[in-house]
Amino acid sequence: MLRTSIRWVRLAAGNLLLIVAVLVFAKAFFPYKPFLPGLAQHADYHVDGQAPAPAQFQKIVFMLVDALRSDFVFGDNSGFEFTQSLIRSGVAIPFTAYATSPTITMPKIKALTTGSIPGFLDLILNFAESDTTSTLATQDNWLAQIKQSGKSLIMFGDDTWLKLFPGLFTRAEGTVSFYVSDFTEVDNNVTRHVEPELRQADWDAMILHYLGLDHIGHKTGPRSGHMVPKQREMDALVRQIYEAIETQEHLKDTLFVLVGDHGMNEGGGHGGSSAGETSAALVFMSPKFEALNVKQRAPEQPTGEFTYYRLVEQSDVAPTLTTLMGLPVPKNNLGQFIGDFLPLWDVDDQVKILSANARELSRLISTSYPDFDRMLAENICNGKDGQFDKLACLWHSAVSSTVPPEKRSLFSTFARECQDILTSAATNYDTTSMEVAIAIGTVSTGLFATVWLIDGLEGRAFYKLLFWMLSLSYGGMMLASSYVEEEQQYWYWAASAWAVILVFREVQRGGSGVYSFVFLALLRVTRRWNQTGQKYAGADDIARGFLSEHPALLWTLVFLAYTDMFWRLKHHLATKHSAAIMGTFLSFPPVLCSMLFKLSMAALDTKELIPGFLVDFAESIAQLSVVTQAQLVFLFLLVDIIYLLVLRSTGMSTATTSVSRIRPFHDILTIFLATQSRLTNIPVLWLFNTMLLLLDAMQFDTQLPILLTCLVMQHVSFFALGNSNAISSVDLSNAYNGVPNFNIALIGPMTFLANWAGPTLWTSATVLLTASWIERRHAGAREAQTKRDDDVVAAPSVTRLDAYLRYVEVMSTFRAVAMVAVMGACMVLRMHLFVWTVFSPKYLFAMVWTGLHHVIIDLVVAAMLHFAVA
């Protein structure tokens, strides 16, 4: 009893310390970036009382189309035909705007409006719809500059704008950005305001933020049949707004900007740093631009992967907009004025514009680097090769020059050099707290390691060596960015090596090895199901390649998968009374509703995945509310759970062993996770359950091989279902199943389970394998005792409590080693070029693995299956 109590205390203390370490490190690694408070004034940047360059526009329509990738507007297959005609006529000036990672809406709105580069912590705040700590109420931006000048603003669309700019809009209506199942209403709610507002003369800035195109990307990808029609819908709005600017007197001095906050990858996701995600379309439109005499081809061929026309930084938008409207450049701007618009002014005003931009950037350099401020004060050009020596020399040359073209060129070069320095500057990390967090994590790891050093774990030394080789090699891998990006390869190779070991084990015990060979073959299939990672993310695979081209085969596999779920659940719901009838009555509705729900969703989102003979039926089913359909699935599954619990409490269940009591709950979980998974991934869950049967047939004699299998397959299943260490791989398409509107308390868990469906299933599978192993141990002990004395029954050789504690000890040890390794890599490589594109996203995923999957699934859910159910 004392030994068990010590184990409980050690596990509780170790996991508590691990969570503390994770949170402390996150706070130190993802700090808010400091900024200069207050709003800029013209006097800040124009010396000797110089008047600023005159405004070219009095009003602005800022139309942001979420996830508007550059090729969607400028490419050959674009639906923006009218926009392309404006480019050809010279009244629209196009660019590709580079969006720095993380390519998520909130940080990108901040970049577009302030000209700054937001911190990575904004990625987390982006998902917290009720968060108000990320407001821009105290940070300079072009909207605040418009308001300061006595003008009014209106906004319709993504309610992120209302959170970022509270109290700034005279009229506004927000829509929830995360309800990705909606392609239509979310945009119609914006469009219905456009025509009446264009007739009004009481506003000076109109913000429109459309979400439907982004939602299509999340649900069906950039090649979806919904994509071009949505682009045409957006293009029709461009036509409506531009023609109003041409014809209505009160809009004649209006600048029209069409922009994307980010792009998307070939899977339809975003958040990472791939070319598709970082390349957003940007178009400035006005009849005044015809005077620039810039007529360009449209559609155009890209010069890079997604680079059309000239590449500009997204932060360049803010200084360009404010200058075009005669407003001061925002204080924290890191962007440059886009030089294509300079010919709108005479040479003297061009110098004023570039000088003001350069002075604003100079202030930021001086604030961040006191050495530069000192060099400017010395007012000399010493000719040294240092970075700030050269910068100071450039500044003095620009200020002292009397030739306008030369002065213009020098200020432009100075601004570009400042931008490069400021955008590449690392965050001011709290390294002390980071070190403390790593120390706490190391203590946690030490507590778990005592299990192996003091208590020991039953099993051969070979398996223990394998565990530590797996844990330590995985930890070392975290130091290499390429390995982090392609982590799935590590787990695929580890799983294959483990399967080969199982083959030898089975043969050594006198078996044929057939179970292990089939397991290895199924593992190979799951590896090819979804290409993931960075290098081969867009390559053909079974899900997006083969099955997409053979929808009849896809639905055959889906039908077989659901049929297997039905027969399993029907068999395991048997009771003492009317077993067959009750089993069918309780098993059929959730399975049928889940399959019909998936068919309805395919009819609405991915009709190309439905074979021709099913299309009419699917469309008729889709007439029913998909929210109601999903709710029915969950209701029927809840009824089954209640039924099982009632049976157990009344003693009517025919289940006499832990395994038979756990199995129906595993089957219910499988149906739920299938409902939460992408259609093309449902057959993979079937394969996982088949692999579970094969593992059970191998009859492990100790627990450690079972736990090693669980550990490996949790990670294999995560990647095999299409996930990766990139934020863009997070699947939101099933986050709203059964949820009628945004509710973070429901959406959060649903999003997690949709993306961690595989690891969750394998946690349940491990409980089943463990229960089966315990029963074999008990049976073996009883048989051995019976041979010695028929009247004496041997005590069980292992208890469920002991098995659960061993499970938690092994999983906690690996998770602690992995978490400390990730923290250490982020600490050591915090100045690395890929810290924000590779290591920061990996840390976020490691937080979810530890804080949600490990604590909630591996500890709590596994305990419920071990004790409450069995």
From TrEMBL:
InterPro entries: Alkaline_phosphatase_core_sf (IPR017850), Phosphodiest/P_Trfase (IPR002591), PIG-G_N (IPR037674), PIGG/GPI7 (IPR039527), PIGG/GPI7_C (IPR045687). Residues 426-866 form the GPI ethanolamine phosphate transferase 2 C-terminal domain. It comes from the Eukaryota. The keyword Transmembrane helix applies. One of its GO terms (cellular component) is endoplasmic reticulum membrane. GO terms for biological process: GPI anchor biosynthetic process. Keywords: Endoplasmic reticulum, Glycoprotein, GPI-anchor biosynthesis, Membrane, Transferase, Transmembrane, Transmembrane helix. Pathway: Glycolipid biosynthesis; glycosylphosphatidylinositol-anchor biosynthesis. GO terms for molecular function: CP2 mannose-ethanolamine phosphotransferase activity. It is found in: Endoplasmic reticulum membrane. The chain crosses the membrane at residues 436-454, 466-484, 550-567, 579-601, 621-647, 668-688, 703-721, 816-839, 845-869. It is a multi-pass membrane protein. Belongs to the PIGG/PIGN/PIGO family. PIGG subfamily. This is GPI ethanolamine phosphate transferase 2.
